[in-house]
Amino acid sequence: MTETRRRSLRHSLAEELRTRILAGEWRPGDRIPSEPELARREAVSRSSMRAAITMLEEDGVVSRRHGSGTYVTYRPALPHDLGRNFGVSSLIRSTGMAPGTVEETSGAVPAPPAVADALGVPEGAPVSSLRRVRTADGRRVVDVSDWCRIEHLAPEDLPELPEGSIYAALAERGLAVDHGVADLTPRNADGDLARRLDVPRGTLVLTIDQVDRAADGVAVLVSREHYVADAFTFCLVRRGPGEGER
Amino acid sequence: MTETRRRSLRHSLAEELRTRILAGEWRPGDRIPSEPELARREAVSRSSMRAAITMLEEDGVVSRRHGSGTYVTYRPALPHDLGRNFGVSSLIRSTGMAPGTVEETSGAVPAPPAVADALGVPEGAPVSSLRRVRTADGRRVVDVSDWCRIEHLAPEDLPELPEGSIYAALAERGLAVDHGVADLTPRNADGDLARRLDVPRGTLVLTIDQVDRAADGVAVLVSREHYVADAFTFCLVRRGPGEGER
DNA sequence: GCGGCGGAGTTGTCGGACAACTGGTACGCT
DNA sequence: AGCGTACCAGTTGTCCGACAACTCCGCCGC
Fold first, then answer.
1. What is the overall mean pLDDT for chain B?
2. pTM, 2 dp
3. What residue is closest to D13 (Cα–C1')?
4. Which residues contact B55 (CB under 8 A, 6 or more apart)?
5. Mutation choice for B interface testing from A184, A213, A232 by most B CBs within 10 A
């Protein structure tokens, strides 16, 4: 439990608190223990615990009331929170089904224009590519394509990825994904996609085009995912209202 | 500038910093001044400035590097950030087009099951309802339905809302929206929706079902929005990877 | 030329102190 | 008895100072 100190103390504290809240140790509306109390239990200073709670507050998990206490925000258990990055495997597993992979192809391919632009390589330059259809309890639910720079992840390493966690492979090479920007587009499956997903032509899919970047802003992974629409519920916490309409 | 202290010092500091970053005072990848330096300039303690930066960090606006500095995260100007709440008007205006409204109907209606459940009223109890089609430069782009409790917003007040900012009306009544949980579903427009949006039957739309809540968790607004898919680009910043796949 | 060392600068954590605010209780007045 | 006020314990908000951990870069010795 203590090896979680990958990043910093307050990050691990926040993560542990988040887990405990999600696990239901405190219910929405409940007041969690005071900052000094939580700090004492974890044997850390109040400053660090307070910083952790500040992160959860900005994340909308808890809300503070001056002079009163810190309360768990009401938010349902999100089946699929789009605001968080995730691996498709864990997503499928979170629904209680078993993830699988079919129709996997990988290798070096010439970079398509959009990919080349995002990764910062010349158009047509070779990039590592991985495409596969993920299944949930055997049913085909999402078609995933990934591209990354060859010097980041060699094409020959792609087939041996453990359970498809390309994120973990990149992290091992010092290219941990910090955040991604996603583009959402609904569409109707065309012939090829319909065949790959084993659904009738015209079936509704949600396409997510995403560029993942490391903390320093370097684009490390470009992906395009086609989700069978009725296989998932896509949820999203929206904070604000933002600065747009004040 | 100082009346911004509605919530707390670190919130106003974070907001000011966010504004300055968005305004381009520091570009993506730039290192912002050190915590002591920023604190000195604003005449606050390092603790408060640090707490503010922690919020921006959790929000993905900046990222810290121990021993090095704090850097502005690379994130493009999002045309339509789903992670932030927004009014449809400001969304349309942000694309450089003029928002308009047609087919507006409002009044008290019996609460549909899902709405009653979210608002915490008996099914069929009267709730205030507002439905309208919003236009961008005259083109119909989104069909919006809103429901809220009658004691929160009276049905007779609905038609006189200034430029559709139902959020502002609720805030005036002490029911400022703190966050919302949205559900995304792609669909093909059926007959009625196609007619309202003036598109062919079967046109792709993205449906967003959303429940907005005040800071104390009280649901204040339920809305259902049908967006014409090819009229908008839906963007989203995803942080993480979360705790799912370690 | 090159590699190791060290120092300046920055973020991370700690401990303590007091202010600001909330909620409840006890008290005193009516 | 009822009611309002004052007080008090508890909690979050802000401040200060100190040191640890880490990064970056230039200097120095080899």
1. 85
2. 0.80
3. A66
4. A54, A55, A57, A58, B10, B11, B14
5. A184
Q: How far apart are CA B54 and CA A10, in angstroms?
A: 10
Report CA(A100)–C1'(C23) in Å, whole number: 54
Residue A99 Cα to chain centre, angstroms: 16
Q: Do A85 and B238 touch (CB under 8 A)?
A: yes
Tell me what pLDDT residue B164 has.
Answer: 56
Residues 6+ positions from B25 with CB-CB distance below 8 Å: none
CB B173 within 8 A of CB B148: no
Terminal C-alpha separation, chain B: 43
**CA–CA separation, B126 vs A231, rounded Å?**
34
For residues B238 and A213, give the distance between their C-alpha atoms in angstroms, rounded to a whole number.
Answer: 11
Cβ separation B237–A179 shorter than 8 A: yes
pLDDT single digits (tens) A194-204:
999 999 999 99
> Considering only CA atoms, which of A108, A196, A207, A209 is closest in space to residue A152?
A108
Question: How distant is C1' of D4 from CA of A71, in Å?
Answer: 31
Higher pLDDT, B97 or A223: A223
Cβ-based neighbour number of residue B131 at 10 Å: 17
CA–CA distances in Å: residue B37 to residues B25, B42, B69:
16, 9, 12
Highest mean pLDDT among A33-47, A149-163, A221-235: A33-47
pLDDT at A181 (0 to 100): 86
Retrieve residue A9's tokens.
Answer: 């103390």
Q: What is the pLDDT of residue A87?
A: 77
The phi, psi pair for B234, rounded to 5°, reads -100, 115
Query: Can you give the pLDDT at residue B151?
Result: 85
Q: How far is A108 from chain B (nearest CA, A)?
A: 26
Are A168 and A160 in contact by the 8 Å Cβ rule? The answer is: no
Nearest residue to A73 (alpha-carbon basis) of B181, B172, B60, B222: B181
Residues A139 and B175: their CA atoms lie apart, in Å, by: 44
Which chain D nucleotides are covered by protein, judged by CB under 7 A?
10-17, 21-24
Long-range contacts of B203-207 (CB under 8 A, 24+ apart): B203/B228, B203/B229, B204/A186, B204/A187, B204/A188, B204/B228, B204/B229, B204/B230, B205/A186, B205/B229, B206/A184, B206/A186, B206/B232, B206/B234
Q: Which DSSP string corresponds to B111-137?
A: PPHHHHHHHT--TT-EEEEEEEEEEET
Which residue of chain A has the CA closest to B184?
A: A234
Nucleotide whose C1' lies closest to the alpha carbon of residue B64: C11
Percentages helix, strand, coil for chain A (3-state, rounded to 5) are: 30, 35, 35
Is the confidence at residue B244, as pLDDT, over 70? no
Q: Give exposure, B62-71, as e/b (b: 16+ Cβ within 10 Å).
A: bbbeeeeebb
Number of A:B CB contacts under 8 A?
216
